[in-house]
Amino acid sequence: MNPITLARLPGVVFLMCILFSFARNQPLNVSPQVFHESLGDMIDASENVRYNIFGQIQGLTAVKLYREASGAFQLHVLRNTEEKAQILILKIPSVKVAHLRNKIANRLQEMGKEHLPLIPPIYPIDESQWVEKSPMKKVILRDGSVLRA
């Protein structure tokens, strides 16, 4: 082999190891899941108020649903408070997600027929959940990049 090629071999091997490690640690599915065909992959504050899906959440920005490789789901709830932005990440089993989707579909049908002013939230998120530490220490963005807390 050429001596210049041999000199570069450790660097090339090191670079290949880094790239392989990075590719191996990437999540398998980072795209948001659809709540309902009418709502898409995100529920914003106005949709939450209209359909009362998660209850009254002060400063709500968006709610997204992500599927993990294990088949479980993560519900990411984003809100803006006076002092900071907050994210609440809740792990939800697939059975509860199916139940949530069915209830959302039923709620959308009911709301299409008549206005129901005093309907209970489908999946209420209590204020006390925001104070608790989230068990998740990372957030996966739509482009696949990861934020770690």
Short description:
By secondary structure, the chain is α+β, with helices and mostly antiparallel strands. It is 36% helix and 23% strand.
Task: Determine the N-to-C terminus distance.
Answer: 47 Å
Strand share of the residues? 15-25%
Major sheet characteristics: 5 strands, antiparallel
**What's the Cα radius of gyration?**
21 Å
Sketch the topology as an H/E string, one letter per element: HEEHEEEHHEE
Helical fraction equals: 25-40%
What is the total number of structural domains?
A: 1
Total DSSP helices: 4
Principal-axis shape: globular
Unreliable stretches, pLDDT < 50, 5 or more residues? 17-26
Indicate the mean pLDDT. 76
Helix/strand structural class? alpha+beta
Quantity of strands, as a count: 7
Ordered list of secondary-structure elements with their pairings:
Blueprint: H1 3-24, E1 32-33, E2 42-44, H2 45-51, E3 60-67, E4 73-80, E5 85-92, H3 94-113, H4 128-131, E6 138-140, E7 146-148
What does this structure look like?
This protein has 149 residues and is of the alpha+beta class. It has four helices and seven strands. The chain has helices at residues 3-24, 45-51, 94-113, 128-131; strands spanning 32-33, 42-44, 60-67, 73-80, 85-92, 138-140, 146-148. Strands 1, 2, 3, 4 and 5 form a five-stranded antiparallel beta sheet that branches. Strands 6-7 form a two-stranded antiparallel ribbon. Strand 6 and strand 7 form a beta hairpin. It is globular and about 40 Å long. The termini are far apart.
